[in-house]
Amino acid sequence: xxxxxxxxxxxxxxxxxxxxxxxxxxxxxxxxxxxxxxxxxxxxxxxxxxxxxxxxxxxxxxxxxxxxxxxxxxxxxxxxxxxxxxxxxxxxxxxxxxxxxxxxxxxxxxxxxxxxxxxxxxxxxxxxxxxxxxxxxxxxxxxxxxxxxxxxxxxxxxxxxxxxxxxxxxxxxxxxxxxxxxxxxxxxxxxxxxxxxxxxxxxxxxxxxxxxxxxxxxxxxxxxxxxxxxxxxxxxxx
Length: 238
Prior knowledge:
This protein is mainly α. The chain has helices at residues 10-23, 36-43, 47-59, 76-79, 82-90, 99-135, 141-158, 162-169, 172-182, 186-204, 208-237, and strands at 63-64, 72-73. The chain has two domains: 10-92, Arc Repressor Mutant, subunit A; 99-237, GntR ligand-binding domain-like (Four Helix Bundle (Hemerythrin (Met), subunit A), Up-down Bundle).
């Protein structure tokens, strides 16, 4: 079992450690957790503290507490919910290699929709935002990461559907961290700058269909460019 150090804030730390242990395979999917007494001893907490953490984990879809039986670890990829995504953001060290490409695939499906809605509802504001981005965009990964986050966040807000914004906000810090790596490629920066110009033209023309097509094209391109970024990082790690 893991050699866990003492906890500073038991209630939240227990939950966090168990999530990490599930994600890194210490407690594999469809397996069971140790008995309550044993697990509390291993973690160095009281059983009431452990029970509180387990109840939260059960509510969030990580485990299944079964009366009179061992607590089952759920397969979070098929039984989990959006809290799993938030946990992956916090635990990047145990994030599956496929997660970012899969996240980009989801963004590729959603961004054209909220972008189209944003232009249909608030074309002038979208155009003004892109004017500002293009006028104040240094050619650095950090600047592009910040601008890209700002753009997509505003597009979700201007779309009129707050669910898009809530979903995106769950990845706030993680989004920019990954974007800085992505924008290390000059080709990625060039692609996005061209995208900002094209989207601005669509917004100025109040052409929501052109905006949707423009966003779709760059989202597909981003998946290819991320693959190149990941390959470069893998070579650096060797």
